Amino acid sequence: MSKLTPPTDPETVQGIRLQKILAHSGFCSRRKAETLILEGRVSVNGMVVKALGTRADPATDKVCLDGKPVHYTSDKTREYTYLAVNKPKGVVTTCAQKNAKIILDLVPVKKRVYPVGRLDKDSVGLVLLTDDGDLHNRLSHPSHDHEKEYLVFATRPVSDLDLAAMAQGMVIDGKKTRRARVRRVSENGFKIVLKQGLNRQIRKMVGKTGNQVTMLKRIRMANIRLGGLPPGKWRHLTEKEVKGLRQ
């Protein structure tokens, strides 16, 4: 068996980060894998590992999640799945939740895919699903500046000052949001493009103006558009779309 490589070792050493092994095995995203490692649920050769960045060799090391073996598949041999779903209201964007209809219930595919980011239960629109851990991490991390576009309608008319305030950034839960692009579509409606995804961010921003969201629909993620995909339906992404996500 190979020797585990602690995160302080140079990047040139052999082995693959445990986060990547878990993600490529279809168990979860890389970000979720980090949580699992910190919770002490991952072991290598019978030893629990809690250090992020630890590496192992899938060919010789036995990696387990909650005591169950993890089977790693490399990029060269794996065929990934990339899906777009139009999430209806009331569906939860998660892989498991008791007494609730989840996003995976809408997608009858055999492969274990998981959502890129979240869209709250009361919101509708585009959700991406994939088993490509690397791409999932790239799309989820705010440092890559992937855009997400939403169509929003409020209870009362939205003033130009309110739109400008949301575009400039607002303090939400003690943190100022990043600048956004905002465009009016009607007296009560607007489109907004974000490069971050704080919890219920748009609803809280609208709330700070003294208004309330009545409809929130995600219509684009990066280069992928919702288009005419009906609510509750899904489709495979094209090769061109997947290539665009990697840029």
Written description of the protein model:
19% of the residues lie in helices and 26% in strands. It has 247 residues and is α+β, with helices and mostly antiparallel strands. Strands 7, 8, 9, 10, 13, 14, 15, 16 and 17 form a nine-stranded mixed beta sheet that branches. It has a four-stranded antiparallel beta sheet with strand order 3-2-5-6. A hairpin with a 4-residue loop joins strand 13 and strand 14 (189-194). It is elongated, with a radius of gyration of 20 Å.
Give the uncertain stretches in residue-range form. 5-13
* Residues in helices, as a percent range: 10-25%
Biggest sheet architecture = 9 strands, mixed
The end-to-end span amounts to 37 Å
- SSE order: EHHEEEEEEEEHEHEEEEHEEEH
Q: What value does the Rg take, in angstroms?
A: 20 Å
Strand content: 25-35%
Q: Which descriptor suits the 3D outline?
A: elongated
- What is the number of helical segments per DSSP (H or I, 4+ residues)? 6
Secondary structure elements and pairings:
Layout: E1 16-17, H1 18-24, H2 30-38, E2 42-44, E3 47-48, E4 55-56, E5 63-65, E6 68-69, E7 82-87, E8 114-115, E9 124-130, H3 133-140, E10 148-154, H4 160-168, E11 171-172, E12 175-176, E13 181-184, E14 189-194, H5 201-208, E15 213-221, E16 224-225, E17 234-236, H6 239-245
Parallel strand pairs: 9-15
Antiparallel strand pairs: 1-4, 2-3, 2-5, 5-6, 7-9, 7-17, 8-9, 10-14, 10-15, 11-12, 13-14, 15-16
Summarize the structure.
The chain has 247 residues and is α+β, with helices and mostly antiparallel strands. The chain has six helices and 17 strands. Strand 11 and strand 12 form a beta hairpin.
